[in-house]
Amino acid sequence: MKQLAICVSLCSILSTVATADVGVGAKPLPGAEVIIDGSREMLDQKWTYWEGPRFASSLPIKWKIVDDPVEGGTCLMTDDPVAAGGKYGTADIVTKKPYRDFRLHVEFLITKLGGNSGVYLQNRFEIQVLDGDKTKHGMGAVINETESPYHAYNGVGKWNAYDITFRAARFEDGKMVQKPLVSMYFNGKKVHENVEINKVWGGPNSGVDGGNNNGFGITDTPQGLKLQCEGHDVRYRNTWIKELDLKEANTNFNEDE
C-alpha cells in the first residue's frame, strides 16, 4: 500500500509538472515574447490592423485598454465601432511580426452571453472564441475541423486560457506536402492533439488565403497572430508566444520545445 501511495504521488507530481506551463495565469516560457501585457504601449508597439478586403478602421488601433474586472490590473478589449453587428475583418488586429511554428498562450474573458471573437494562427486558422456554441463552429474548436471542447470552458465573466502548439504547413517545390497541425490545452485540459487543418475557412474577409482557391490555396508564408473583433466585449491579457522549429509532424507539448 505504501508503494502504491508513492506511485500515485509521483504520478500526480509528474502530471502537474507536464502541465505547469498551461492554464490561466501561466507565465511565459524561457525565450517567449510577451505580446499582450495590458498596456497601450505594447499594443501599439507589437500590433496593427489587418488590412484585409473588409477593413474599415484606421490607426491608431481603436481597441481599448480597460480594467480587468476579475483580478484587477488592465487588459485589452475588442472594441471598435466599425465591427458592430459581427462584421469580422473590419477591425481585426494582427501582430506586426510573422510566425511559422510556435507555442502560444492567450487568455480571454467574455463579458456577456454570446460574446464572439477568435484567435487566428498565422492569420489563417481560427481557434474559435464564442460563448454558447458547442458545435464545430463553437468555443475552442479548430473551426470546422473539430467539435467544440465546451466542457473545458470556464464561462462568461471568467478568464480562460488557450495553450497552443502550431506546426505550419510544409512545402516542397511550391507544393504543400504536409498540412498544418495544431495541439491545444484549454484551461489546462488537453482538448486537441495533432489536428490536421485542411483549409482556411471563412472566405477572404476571415484571413490570409481565405479567398485563394476557396481557402485550399494555402501559401508558404509566415503570418502574424490575429485577434478578431466582432463588435463584442471580449478581453485579452497575458498573451505570449515562443517561436519553434518543429522538425517532425508532431505538436505534442513538452516534447519538441
UniProtKB/TrEMBL annotation:
What are the UniProt keywords, alphabetically?
Answer: Signal
Question: Which residues are the signal sequence here?
Answer: 1-20
Gene3D superfamilies reported for this sequence: Exo-inulinase, domain 1
What Pfam families does the record point to? 3keto-disac_hyd
Which residue intervals define the domain 3-keto-alpha-glucoside-1,2-lyase/3-keto-2-hydroxy-glucal hydratase in the entry?
A: 50-242
Query: What is the name of the protein in this document?
Result: 3-keto-alpha-glucoside-1,2-lyase/3-keto-2-hydroxy-glucal hydratase domain-containing protein
**Which superkingdom heads the taxonomic lineage of this protein's source?**
Bacteria
Q: Which InterPro entries match?
A: AL/BT2_dom
For molecular function, the Gene Ontology terms on record are: hydrolase activity
